[in-house]
Design a protein that fits this description.
184 residues; alpha+beta; VC0467-like; 10-stranded mixed β-sheet; 10 strands; 33% strand
């Protein structure tokens, strides 16, 4: 237990890692990441505190319709993104000038929906994929684990923007963001 506290203190004292991690930040996997679940991913942090972090992988669309993930939504053809290796739950990201009740503000005009009835309402309204994305599963870390991975250079932390979250070609988000990073 003492070693975890020491890691947290060391990571928190190094500029650029702990203070940059927050809800609404993008984690862009570096070339050092060899984890097959996370290599070449772009993850939006949707939760971050002393207990841990939760993110959604933005650049892994699937061909699975929402009706396969949530059979009660029989006609939901909305494509589902693989949100991460933890295969629990369905969440959605919505870009809207006003945050719907029961949604959680993430950054700017982007909110997260985890409420089933609100999710159904967005689907029934035929909210376009340029403003609405559904994710099955998530990525998760303890706060210490994510800070340690940052220290090891496995992640670049960038401010989120809606154009990355709702990119019309999500498979191209990672190389585009990597190309924008400064070269040393």
């Amino acid at each position: 237990m003492a070693w975890r506290a020491l890691i947290l203190i060391v990571c928190a004292s190094i500029p650029g890692i702990a203070e940059n991690l927050a809800v609404g930040k993008l984690l862009v996997a570096s070339g050092k990441s060899h984890d097959p679940d996370l290599a070449r991913t772009v993850i939006l942090l949707v939760h971050y505190d002393q207990q841990g972090a939760i993110g959604l992988i933005l650049n892994r669309p699937s061909k699975v319709p929402l009706s396969d993930v949530m059979p009660e939504l029989k006609n939901a053809s909305t494509p589902v993104f693989a949100g991460g290796p933890v295969t629990i739950g369905v969440r959605a990201l919505l870009q809207s000038a006003s945050k719907p009740d029961q949604a959680v503000h993430i950054f700017g005009d982007v909110s997260m929906i985890s409420n089933k009835s609100l999710l159904e309402k967005m689907i029934d309204a035929r909210t376009p994929p340029t403003k609405f994305r559904v994710y099955a599963g998530y990525t998760g870390w303890s706060a210490e684990q994510l800070q340690s991975e940052g220290q090891l250079g496995l992640w670049h932390v960038l401010p989120a923007d809606a154009s990355a979250v709702f990119d019309p070609v999500p498979e191209k988000v990672w190389p585009r963001l990597i190309d924008r990073l400064p070269r040393f």
